[in-house]
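Field reference: sequence -> structure
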Amino acid sequence: MDVIQAIKERRSINFFEPGQYLPVQTLRDLLELAELAPSSMNLQPWRVIVVDDPQRKKTLRQCAFDQPKVEEASAVLIMVADPAALEENLDAVLGSWMQLGYMKPEAAETYKGLAGKLYSAADSLTRKLFAVKNTSLYAMNIMIAAKGFGLETHPMDGFDEDAIKQAFGIPEDKIIPMLIAVGYLKSGFTLLPRAFRKTFEDFVTFNHYT
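Structure field:
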């Protein structure tokens, strides 16, 4: 599917066809393709928990204010933003850059110091925002790429984060920016026209806020 068409046709679907299995290979292909999303210093501060077992979806539904689409969708992705990705991934990123010729070995320590200053302490708001912003870029890539696989999605913000962490073994220092329901539009269901969108003049200015 053409990327412009995918963006135009992507909708947040509330009604999924229940009982539709999504093959693991399809999920793998989707998530690997979407992982081409950009991230600051290429640190990729995200994890994904795929919830496709019927019983686990029941548990997740209770953590998501009993929204039916959690069970009806083929799978629900718990998007996990990891503030510790800086420490965990930086050496691999720098090693790749050196191997590919992006930087010389003697510059690696300089980049490490720069990263530490840029992203601040592990428990800081700056670090948390870094993780959430970049995980959200990945999440949007998932939703656009899903259209190319013939899939529908819905990003979900209505959930109890603490309950999900407890139910799915997610460490306290991680952040859950959203859930993404993935599946197929319910048969016989016709989407209504796209709702209100701001005009260009409503949200764009040039060279100054106002």
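Note: Residues 9 and 147 are 8 Å apart (CA to CA).
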